[in-house]
Amino acid sequence: MGRYVARRLLLTIPVLIGASFLIFAMVYALPGDPIRALAGDRPLAPAVVAQLRAQFNLDDPLVIQYGKYVAGLTHLDLGTDFHQRPVLEIITDRLPVTVKLTVVAVLLEASIGLVAGVFAGIRRNGYFDNLVLVSTTLIISIPILVLAFVSQYVLGLKFGWFPIAGIQQGWYSYLLPGLVLASGSLAYVARLTRTSIAENMNADYVRTAKAKGLPRRTIIVRHTLRNSLIPVITFIGADVGALLGGAIVTEAVFNIPGIGRAVFDAVRGQEGAVVVGIVTLMVFFFIFFNLIVDVLYAVLDPRIRYD
Amino acid sequence: MSTSSGYISSTPSLEPSGTGSPVLEVDDLHVEFRVRSGVVHAVNGISYHVDQGETLAILGESGSGKSVSAQAIMGILDSPPAVITGGGIHFQGRDILTMTEEEQRQIRGPGIAMIFQDALSALNPVYSVGFQIGEMFRAHRGTSKKEAKQKAIELMDRVRIPAAARRVNDYPHQFSGGMRQRVMIAMALALDPRILIADEPTTALDVTVQAQVMDLLKDLQRDTGMGLILITHDLGVVNEVADRVAVMYAGRIVETGTVDEVFTRPAMPYTVGLMNSIPQVEAKGGRLKPIVGQPPNLARIPSGCPFHPRCPRARTGAAAAAGRDCVTDLPLLRVVTPGREAACHYSEEVLGG
Q1: H-helix or E-strand containing B55?
Q2: For B139, which of A203, A214, A230 is closest by C-beta distance?
Q3: Which of B11, B68, B126, B132 should one mutate to test binding to chain A, selecting the residue with the greatest count of A CBs within 10 A?
Q4: Distance from A127 to chain B by nearest Cα, in Å?
Q5: Integer CA distances (angstroms), B311 to A81, B70, B305, B332, in order
Q6: Nearest-neighbour CA in chain A from B311: distance (Å)
Q7: Cα angle A292, A294, A296; round to 5
Q8: pLDDT, tens only, A103-115
Q9: Please, what's the b/e burial string for B213-245 (b: 16 or more CB within 10 A of its CB; e: otherwise)?
Q10: Is it the case that residue B101 has pLDDT exceeding 80?
Q11: Quick one: what percent of chain A has pLDDT higher than 90?
C-alpha cells in the first residue's frame, strides 16, 4: 500500500507540470492586452508600458515565459499579480475561505444525503422514497445560478434567516452558500445511497444474515449499510477535491472571497501568474483527493488490494 | 474434533419435545409469488417431516419449489412478492408461522440453520470469516467479541479448515470454493442446530470437493444427531447420503419413500424419467434418455396431473379409468406400498413395469 501511494504521488508531478503549461498557454492565447486592461481609460506613458511588459516577461515567447515561471517555482516564487502582490499570498489569503465553504458543503451533503438515501432505500417505493426521488430530480434539474439567487432572495432577504452575502457572521454565513453549493451533490448522494442500499437488501449475504437469526438492526446496519456506503463515501471523497477548487457561481452570488472568486477575477484581468498558480492548485487538490478515495476504497473493501 | 465440548449446549426451549414426534414437520404448505404478470404457484401443498439424525433429500429440477419451501421454513422468503398462503411449519411441535418475529429469529441458528449453494455470494465480502462465524455466538448468546473469535477458530477446526487459527481473520474471497463452503457449514453448525437445511451445498463445487463436503456433512450429522434436509438435483449425492427422498414437481411432492425403494422401483413416471436419465456405465456409448418437454410454467400449471404433458403413460378420455383422467383429475399423494407414497393415478402399473 505504501509503495502504491508513493507511486501515485510521484505521478502527480508530471500531471501538474503538464496542467500548468496548458493553463499558461491558454492565458497566453487570450485576446487583448493585459497592460491596457490594467490601465483602463487612462492612457499610460509608452515607457511605463514597456517597463511593465519587461517586468512581467510579456514580450517573451510562450516557452521562455513558462521557463521563467518554473524557475521561480523552485524557490516557492509563484510570481505576483500586476499590483505586485505575491500569488502565494493571494492563495493563503483566499484558501481558508474556500476550505470553510467546502467543509460546510460536504457536511451538509453527507449528512442530509445519506440519511435521506438510507431511509428511502430501506423502504423502497414507500412515501418517503417517492418524496426523495421527486425532490432530488427537482434539485438536479435546476441550474445552480437560479438556486443561488432564489434561496438568497427567499431565505436571506424575505425571511431574513440567513445573511444575504459576505462572511461577516463567521460559520453561520457559510450555511446558505454551503447548502446551495452542496445541493447537486446532496441529491446525487441521496440517490446513490438509495440505489446502493436497495440493491444490497437483496444480496445473498443479507439473506444469510437473516438466516443466521441476527436482529433486524444488525442486518441493516452491519450487513447492508456498510457495504452500501462504499460507493457513496468514495463519491463524497472525490467531491471534496472538486469543491476545494472553489465555486465560481456560488462565491460570486454570495460575495464570498474564496479561491473561485480569485481565479474568476484573475481570468478577467488576464493575470497569468495568478490563474496558473490557482488552477494548478485546483488540479492538485483534485488528484490528491482522488488518491485518498482510492486508498479509502481498499480500506473499506478488503477485496481491493494494491500490491 | 474434541474441542467442541464447551459450546454444544442447547437452550432449554429447543430440546427435543418427546421422542415420538419429528423435529420438523411441514404440513400442507402453500407459497405463491404475486408478481405483476400474475400469480406464480411455487409450492402447492407439500408435507414432509424430518426426524432426529435423519437425512431427507428433496429432489427436483429448477423451479420445482424445493428451494422456496426451504426458504419458507427459514423465514427468508422475499415478501413481497412471496406469500405463504396456507399450511404450517411445526418445529418441535410449535408452528413457526404463528410465532412472533422475535421467536422466529431465536429459532434461526440454534434451532434451524441453513447453508447455501454459492458460499461466495452468501458470505459478506467485507467481514472476515471469523467475524461472520462468531456473529452467531454474539447475536444468540451475547458472547464477547474475543470469545466469539475463539469459538470461530474451534468451529473452523471442526470443519477441517487447515490452519484455522491463522485463517480466522481472512476474508471469504481468500478461500477456495470448498473451504468457503466449509466456512458456511461452520457458521450454520455454530449453535448446534436441530435441523440443518443444505440448499444445493455442492452444486458450485468440483466433483472431488463435492465428495469431501458431503462426507463432512455426514460426519457432523453423526456427531450432533441433527436432522438434515438436503435440497439437490444431484441424484448421485442423494443416493449416497439420504435416508428418505421426496421428489418434487411443479410445487408438489410427487413421490416419497426410502432412497433404495425410490431409486430401484420408482412409482411415478416423473421419477422413472429421472432414474432413466442417469448415465449408466453398462450403457456406455448409448444415448441418454431425457425427460421430453419443458418444466411447467408455475404461473400456468397444467390441469389434472401437472406432469401429464410430458408423461409417456398419461391417459385421457376413453383410455382412462373413471375419475383417473390424467388431463382433468389431479392425482393426490397416496400410499402405494407401505412407507411409500406417490402422486400418480397409475402407480401400480408403473411399479409393475
Answers
A1: strand B55-59
A2: A214
A3: B126
A4: 17
A5: 91, 27, 9, 16
A6: 36
A7: 65
A8: 999 999 999 999 9
A9: bbebbeebbeebebbbbbbbbbbebbeebbbbb
A10: yes
A11: 21
Provide the β-strand partners of residue B44: B30
- Count of CA atoms in the C-beta half-sphere (13 A) of A218: 17
Domain boundaries, chain A: 2-73, 88-300
Q: CA–CA separation, B74 vs A50, rounded Å?
A: 87
For chain A, the C-alpha Rg in angstroms (whole number) is 24
pLDDT at B62 over 90: no
- Label the pairing between strands B38-50 and B24-35: antiparallel
Q: How do the domains of chain B map onto residue ranges? A: 112-190
Q: How far is A218 from chain B (nearest CA, A)?
A: 9
Residue B43, helix vs strand vs coil: strand
Give the ipTM: 0.84
Average pLDDT for A171-186: 88
> With the C-alpha atoms ordered B232, B234, B236, B239, is the resulting torsion angle positive or negative?
positive
Would you state the pLDDT for residue B13? Answer: 43
Nearest of B337, B344, B350, B352 to residue B252 by alpha carbon: B344
pLDDT band at B20 (very low <50, low <70, confident <90, very high): low
- The CATH number of A88-300, from 3.90.1010.20, 3.40.50.10490, 1.10.3720.10, 3.40.30.10, is 1.10.3720.10
